[in-house]
Amino acid sequence: MNLQILSTYIIACIFIICAPGPSVTYLITTSISKGKISAYRTIPGIFLGDLSAMILSFAGVGLLIINFPVFYNLFKLFGIAYLIYLGLKSIFRKIENSNNQEKSAQKNWKTGFLLTFSNPKTILFFSSFIPQFISPHSDYLFQVALLGGIYLVIGLVNDFTYSTFAFYVGKLLGENASYVAAKIGGLAMIISAILVFFEHN
Protein backbone atom coordinates (compact mmCIF):
# COMPACT_ATOMS: atom_id res chain seq x y z
CA MET A 1 0.00 0.00 0.00
CA ASN A 2 1.50 3.31 -1.06
CA LEU A 3 1.23 6.64 0.71
CA GLN A 4 -1.13 8.12 -1.87
CA ILE A 5 -3.72 5.37 -1.41
CA LEU A 6 -3.42 5.64 2.37
CA SER A 7 -3.88 9.42 2.23
CA THR A 8 -6.95 9.03 0.03
CA TYR A 9 -8.38 6.49 2.44
CA ILE A 10 -7.85 8.78 5.44
CA ILE A 11 -9.53 11.71 3.69
CA ALA A 12 -12.46 9.48 2.67
CA CYS A 13 -12.81 8.24 6.25
CA ILE A 14 -12.87 11.79 7.61
CA PHE A 15 -15.64 12.86 5.23
CA ILE A 16 -17.70 9.72 5.86
CA ILE A 17 -17.31 9.70 9.64
CA CYS A 18 -17.84 13.43 10.18
CA ALA A 19 -21.25 13.34 8.49
CA PRO A 20 -23.74 13.26 11.41
CA GLY A 21 -25.72 10.04 11.78
CA PRO A 22 -27.90 8.47 14.51
CA SER A 23 -24.95 7.80 16.82
CA VAL A 24 -23.70 11.40 16.58
CA THR A 25 -27.25 12.66 17.13
CA TYR A 26 -27.45 10.54 20.26
CA LEU A 27 -24.06 11.77 21.49
CA ILE A 28 -25.01 15.41 20.98
CA THR A 29 -28.36 14.95 22.70
CA THR A 30 -26.77 13.07 25.60
CA SER A 31 -23.95 15.56 26.02
CA ILE A 32 -26.28 18.56 26.21
CA SER A 33 -29.02 16.95 28.27
CA LYS A 34 -26.99 14.72 30.61
CA GLY A 35 -23.45 16.05 30.45
CA LYS A 36 -20.31 15.24 28.48
CA ILE A 37 -19.31 12.41 30.85
CA SER A 38 -22.49 10.52 29.93
CA ALA A 39 -21.69 11.03 26.26
CA TYR A 40 -18.08 9.94 26.77
CA ARG A 41 -19.30 6.70 28.35
CA THR A 42 -21.39 6.00 25.27
CA ILE A 43 -18.38 6.20 22.95
CA PRO A 44 -16.78 2.84 23.94
CA GLY A 45 -20.04 1.16 22.94
CA ILE A 46 -20.02 2.86 19.56
CA PHE A 47 -16.39 1.82 19.14
CA LEU A 48 -17.18 -1.81 19.99
CA GLY A 49 -20.18 -1.74 17.66
CA ASP A 50 -18.02 -0.58 14.76
CA LEU A 51 -15.27 -3.04 15.63
CA SER A 52 -17.72 -5.96 15.83
CA ALA A 53 -19.33 -4.98 12.52
CA MET A 54 -15.90 -4.69 10.95
CA ILE A 55 -14.84 -8.15 12.13
CA LEU A 56 -18.10 -9.72 10.99
CA SER A 57 -17.88 -8.04 7.59
CA PHE A 58 -14.49 -9.64 6.91
CA ALA A 59 -15.75 -12.95 8.28
CA GLY A 60 -18.26 -13.11 5.45
CA VAL A 61 -21.41 -11.91 7.24
CA GLY A 62 -21.73 -9.07 4.72
CA LEU A 63 -22.11 -11.61 1.91
CA LEU A 64 -24.63 -13.54 4.01
CA ILE A 65 -26.74 -10.42 4.45
CA ILE A 66 -26.58 -9.65 0.72
CA ASN A 67 -27.50 -13.19 -0.36
CA PHE A 68 -30.21 -13.71 2.26
CA PRO A 69 -32.35 -10.53 2.49
CA VAL A 70 -34.27 -11.91 5.46
CA PHE A 71 -31.19 -11.38 7.66
CA TYR A 72 -30.82 -7.82 6.40
CA ASN A 73 -34.49 -7.07 7.06
CA LEU A 74 -34.36 -8.51 10.56
CA PHE A 75 -31.31 -6.40 11.37
CA LYS A 76 -32.97 -3.37 9.81
CA LEU A 77 -36.25 -3.75 11.72
CA PHE A 78 -34.43 -4.19 15.01
CA GLY A 79 -32.36 -1.07 14.31
CA ILE A 80 -35.47 0.94 13.42
CA ALA A 81 -37.29 -0.20 16.55
CA TYR A 82 -34.30 0.67 18.71
CA LEU A 83 -33.98 4.14 17.18
CA ILE A 84 -37.67 4.82 17.82
CA TYR A 85 -37.30 3.56 21.40
CA LEU A 86 -34.34 5.89 22.03
CA GLY A 87 -36.18 8.79 20.40
CA LEU A 88 -39.31 8.34 22.52
CA LYS A 89 -37.21 7.83 25.63
CA SER A 90 -35.42 11.11 24.95
CA ILE A 91 -38.61 13.05 24.22
CA PHE A 92 -40.40 11.90 27.36
CA ARG A 93 -37.32 11.92 29.58
CA LYS A 94 -37.72 13.63 32.90
CA ILE A 95 -35.00 15.87 34.27
CA GLU A 96 -32.66 13.64 36.24
CA ASN A 97 -30.77 14.46 39.39
CA SER A 98 -27.01 13.95 39.45
CA ASN A 99 -27.22 10.50 41.08
CA ASN A 100 -29.60 9.17 38.45
CA GLN A 101 -27.48 10.66 35.70
CA GLU A 102 -24.45 8.83 37.09
CA LYS A 103 -26.31 5.51 37.14
CA SER A 104 -27.69 5.93 33.61
CA ALA A 105 -24.26 6.98 32.33
CA GLN A 106 -22.84 3.60 33.34
CA LYS A 107 -25.25 1.89 30.93
CA ASN A 108 -24.65 4.22 28.01
CA TRP A 109 -21.95 2.11 26.38
CA LYS A 110 -24.56 -0.63 25.81
CA THR A 111 -26.81 1.89 24.10
CA GLY A 112 -23.91 3.02 21.91
CA PHE A 113 -23.11 -0.57 20.95
CA LEU A 114 -26.69 -1.46 19.99
CA LEU A 115 -27.17 1.83 18.16
CA THR A 116 -24.17 1.11 15.93
CA PHE A 117 -24.27 -2.66 15.62
CA SER A 118 -28.03 -2.94 14.94
CA ASN A 119 -27.62 -1.13 11.61
CA PRO A 120 -26.97 -3.81 8.94
CA LYS A 121 -25.52 -1.16 6.62
CA THR A 122 -22.57 -0.85 9.00
CA ILE A 123 -21.50 -4.40 8.15
CA LEU A 124 -22.22 -3.89 4.44
CA PHE A 125 -20.27 -0.63 4.49
CA PHE A 126 -17.12 -2.25 5.85
CA SER A 127 -17.52 -5.14 3.39
CA SER A 128 -17.55 -2.77 0.42
CA PHE A 129 -15.52 0.26 1.53
CA ILE A 130 -12.27 -1.02 3.01
CA PRO A 131 -11.54 -3.66 0.32
CA GLN A 132 -11.31 -0.87 -2.27
CA PHE A 133 -8.06 0.28 -0.65
CA ILE A 134 -6.45 -3.13 -0.17
CA SER A 135 -3.56 -3.96 -2.47
CA PRO A 136 -3.26 -7.57 -3.70
CA HIS A 137 0.52 -7.16 -3.59
CA SER A 138 0.76 -6.60 0.18
CA ASP A 139 -0.11 -8.61 3.27
CA TYR A 140 -3.90 -8.80 3.49
CA LEU A 141 -4.30 -9.09 7.27
CA PHE A 142 -1.87 -6.25 7.92
CA GLN A 143 -3.77 -3.97 5.54
CA VAL A 144 -7.14 -4.87 7.07
CA ALA A 145 -5.79 -4.19 10.58
CA LEU A 146 -4.20 -0.90 9.52
CA LEU A 147 -7.18 0.43 7.58
CA GLY A 148 -9.65 -0.75 10.19
CA GLY A 149 -7.59 0.77 13.00
CA ILE A 150 -7.37 4.12 11.19
CA TYR A 151 -11.14 4.19 10.71
CA LEU A 152 -11.79 3.41 14.37
CA VAL A 153 -9.32 6.04 15.62
CA ILE A 154 -10.87 8.72 13.41
CA GLY A 155 -14.26 7.63 14.71
CA LEU A 156 -13.13 8.04 18.31
CA VAL A 157 -11.75 11.53 17.67
CA ASN A 158 -14.95 12.48 15.87
CA ASP A 159 -17.21 11.22 18.67
CA PHE A 160 -15.24 12.93 21.42
CA THR A 161 -15.16 16.18 19.42
CA TYR A 162 -18.90 16.22 18.83
CA SER A 163 -19.62 15.35 22.47
CA THR A 164 -17.31 18.01 23.88
CA PHE A 165 -18.46 20.72 21.47
CA ALA A 166 -22.14 19.95 22.13
CA PHE A 167 -21.60 20.16 25.90
CA TYR A 168 -20.12 23.65 25.77
CA VAL A 169 -22.71 24.84 23.27
CA GLY A 170 -25.36 23.62 25.69
CA LYS A 171 -23.71 25.59 28.48
CA LEU A 172 -23.79 28.74 26.37
CA LEU A 173 -27.47 28.26 25.51
CA GLY A 174 -28.46 28.12 29.18
CA GLU A 175 -30.64 25.97 31.41
CA ASN A 176 -33.35 25.25 28.83
CA ALA A 177 -30.83 23.72 26.42
CA SER A 178 -31.05 20.32 28.14
CA TYR A 179 -34.84 20.17 27.74
CA VAL A 180 -34.84 21.39 24.13
CA ALA A 181 -31.94 19.14 23.09
CA ALA A 182 -33.69 16.05 24.47
CA LYS A 183 -36.85 16.81 22.48
CA ILE A 184 -35.11 17.75 19.23
CA GLY A 185 -32.65 14.86 19.47
CA GLY A 186 -35.43 12.39 20.17
CA LEU A 187 -37.45 13.67 17.23
CA ALA A 188 -34.38 13.46 14.97
CA MET A 189 -33.85 9.81 15.88
CA ILE A 190 -37.49 8.96 15.18
CA ILE A 191 -37.32 10.73 11.81
CA SER A 192 -34.11 8.82 11.02
CA ALA A 193 -35.89 5.54 11.82
CA ILE A 194 -38.80 6.46 9.52
CA LEU A 195 -36.43 7.37 6.68
CA VAL A 196 -34.55 4.08 7.09
CA PHE A 197 -37.85 2.17 7.03
CA PHE A 198 -38.99 3.68 3.73
CA GLU A 199 -35.63 3.68 1.96
CA HIS A 200 -34.91 1.07 -0.69
CA ASN A 201 -32.36 -1.60 0.14
Automatic annotation (TrEMBL):
This is Threonine transporter RhtB. Its main location: membrane. The keyword Membrane applies. GO terms for cellular component: plasma membrane. It holds the Pfam family LysE. Keywords: Cell membrane, Membrane, Transmembrane, Transmembrane helix. The keyword Membrane applies. The chain crosses the membrane at residues 6-28, 48-68, 74-92, 113-134, 140-168, 180-198. It is found in: Cell membrane. GO terms for molecular function: amino acid transmembrane transporter activity. It is a multi-pass membrane protein.
